[in-house]
């Protein structure tokens, strides 16, 4: 998963006040803080929507999900061939 996509989702949710510490997080007895059920739903729904964002590259349209799948296939193919990761050229998501 590309951190830049996740970062965009989280920052967007915070900036648009769609998620907040009062309604969407819970603190555990050990002091750790987690998303509650509603918070998880909001984050996952927004992330899934972001993965379906369409981008135009070289006259073709792709979603982030398709680009990630392409990167995974390319990485797997290189590992199965010679393992030379210098040949791995992932899409730049920024």
Task: Itemize the secondary structure elements and their pairings.
Blueprint: H1 3-15, H2 21-24, E1 25-27, E2 33-35, H3 37-51, E3 54-57, E4 60-63, H4 64-81
Antiparallel strand pairs: 1-2, 3-4
InterPro entries: CRISPR-assoc_Cas1, CRISPR-assoc_Cas1_C
GO molecular function, one term: metal ion binding
Organism: Streptococcus oralis
Walk me through what this model shows.
- Helix 1 packs across helix 3.
- A two-stranded antiparallel ribbon has the order 1-2. The protein has a two-stranded antiparallel ribbon with strand order 3-4.
- The mean pLDDT is 93.
- It folds into 2 domains: 51 residues, no CATH class; 41 residues, no CATH class.
- 53% of the residues lie in helices and 15% in strands.
- The protein contains 4 helices and 4 strands, in the order ααββαββα.
- It is α+β, with helices and mostly antiparallel strands.
- It is elongated, with a radius of gyration of 17 Å.
Q: Report the C-alpha radius of gyration, rounded.
A: 17 Å
Biggest sheet overview: 2 strands, antiparallel
Compute the separation of the termini in Å.
14 Å
- How much of the polypeptide forms β-strand, as a percent range? 5-15%
Give the strand line-up of the largest sheet. 1-2
Poorly predicted runs: none
Overall geometry comes to elongated
Count of domain modules: 2
Helical region count? 4
Strand tally: 4
Residue share in helix: 40-55%
The structure class reads alpha+beta
The succession of helices and strands, N to C, reads: HHEEHEEH
Which whole number gives the mean pLDDT?
Answer: 93
Protein name: CRISPR-associated endonuclease Cas1
InterPro entries: CRISPR-assoc_Cas1, CRISPR-assoc_Cas1_C
Pfam family, one: Cas_Cas1
GO molecular function: DNA binding; endonuclease activity; hydrolase activity; metal ion binding
């Amino acid at each position: 998963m590309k951190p830049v996509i996740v970062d965009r989702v989280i920052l967007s949710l915070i900036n648009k006040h769609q998620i907040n510490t009062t309604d969407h997080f819970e603190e555990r007895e050990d002091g750790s803080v987690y998303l509650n059920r509603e918070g998880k739903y909001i984050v996952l729904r927004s992330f899934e929507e972001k993965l379906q964002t369409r981008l135009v590259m070289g006259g073709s349209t792709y979603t982030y999900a398709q680009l990630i799948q392409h990167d995974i296939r390319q990485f797997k193919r290189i590992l199965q061939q010679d393992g030379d990761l210098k040949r791995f050229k992932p899409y730049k998501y920024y």
